[in-house]
Amino acid sequence: MGEDTTVKSVETTFRIIEALHDRGGAGVTELASALSAPKSTVHNHLQTLEGNEYVVNDDGTYRVGSRFLELGAHARDRRAIYEVARPEVDRIAEETGELSGVVVEEHGRGVFLHRAKGDRAVHVDTYAGKRIYLHGTALGKAVLANLPEERVDAIADRHGLPALTENTVTDRGELADELAEIRETGIAFDDEERLDGLRSVAGAVTGPDGDVLGAVSVAGPTSRLRDERFREELPGVVRSAVNVIDLNVTYS
């Protein structure tokens, strides 16, 4: 077993930041209770974060500061897929009237870089920076299908294959079979596997060297994504977008 090089004070700082994010803001006492940490420790960390402009103190209620937005935008903009995928994601949303998005893989999770809403799009919990399990979405499965088998296994070892709905694939063998089919067709489906009542269709974007850069999708309610539209029409829309993005990545 390798040496544990975790710096506990840094770990505490990140736990505080995540707790503030989850709660939308909190005071020292609430954070100390939630983290089972001394109030003095929490207070000192918050003071340091505030001094470096990473949190804002509003009469004793601390909130995550917009400095993180600057860092997040920088991280997003450095992804090769972002600038070339964004216009196509916007076009998909406008053309279909549904929800469209682009996701990349990071630390074994999917991270939304951009999403666009058509005039009939449903309101779901996707936004830039949102992290999702890969095995429970069309976007994630499109990415997994283009990763080496050992990488897929490592992701499953780290994050598991938890059931997000009754339809989520939680068996490794079943997932492997589905990923093989996705590699053949170039299209991944999510049939109420992350959220009840929501379906989506996705395709992976690859770079000139064949490495997967991310995936784009279109999603909507089961009442509208039915039969031919779900299995034939929208896959065509996604394939067209992926083709454009692939070309732009290659020649940009």
From TrEMBL:
Domain IclR-ED stretches: 67-251
Per the record, the domain of life is Archaea
Does this UniProt record's set of keywords contain tRNA-binding?
no
UniProt cross-references to PROSITE patterns, sorted A to Z? HTH_ICLR, ICLR_ED
Q: Give every HTH iclR-type domain span.
A: 7-66
Sorted alphabetically, which keywords does the UniProt record give? DNA-binding, Transcription, Transcription regulation
| One of the GO BP terms on file | regulation of DNA-templated transcription
Keyword match Nucleotide-binding: no
Q: Specify the protein name.
A: IclR family transcriptional regulator
